[in-house]
Amino acid sequence: MALIEVEVKINATQDRVWEIISDLDNEPKFWKGTKMVKNISKTEEVIKREITIAFRDQKCLQEVRVFPKSRIEAKFTEGVLNGSKIISIENSNNAVILKTEWDIKLGGMMNMFTNLIKNHIKSGTEQAMNAIKEEIEGVKS
Whole-angstrom Cα distance, residue 107 to residue 78? Predict the structure, then answer.
């Protein structure tokens, strides 16, 4: 498994950060590795969706659980990615710490390339989180 952790400090309220990150349909705006999101079903607790990732336009299925103003847990259930991505927020001295944690590996025969894509995913995560920060703060970092 590839374990990746990235965090960024955002000068904003928890409500404002949550407003941006909880708009799950808008994910491709910030996460360039996600090309498209298609919701399949939604209950009070779980959103099942199909995402198209930039890696060879592969489709993956996810189960997403939203814990309001705290975290979003996306579990990859089918496709080339196996594992999870957790985005969380917490208050910190008049700011918010936005953190993303990946615990993933490539599925099937692609498993041998998991470590090769780790840096690519980390770089994409840093880019996404800085784009979210810029959107909220209104300045480039």
Answer: 9
Structural domain boundaries enclosing 57: 2-137
The DSSP code sequence of 24-62 is GGGHHHH-TTEEEEEEEEE-SS-EEEEEEESGGG-EEEE
Q: What is the CATH number of the domain that holds 35?
A: 3.30.530.20
Give pLDDT tens digits for 90-110: 999 899 999 999 998 877 766
pLDDT of 22-43, one tens digit each?
Answer: 999 999 999 998 999 999 999 9
Cα-to-chain-centroid distance, residue 59: 16
In the DSSP assignment, the letter for residue 15 is H
Cβ-based burial of 68 (10 A; exposed 0-12, middle 13-18, buried ≥19):
exposed
The distance between the two most distant Cα atoms of the chain, rounded to a whole number of Å, is 46
Neighbours of 30 (CB within 10 A): 19
Cβ atoms within 10 Å of 106's Cβ, excluding its own: 21
In total, how many domains does the chain have? 1
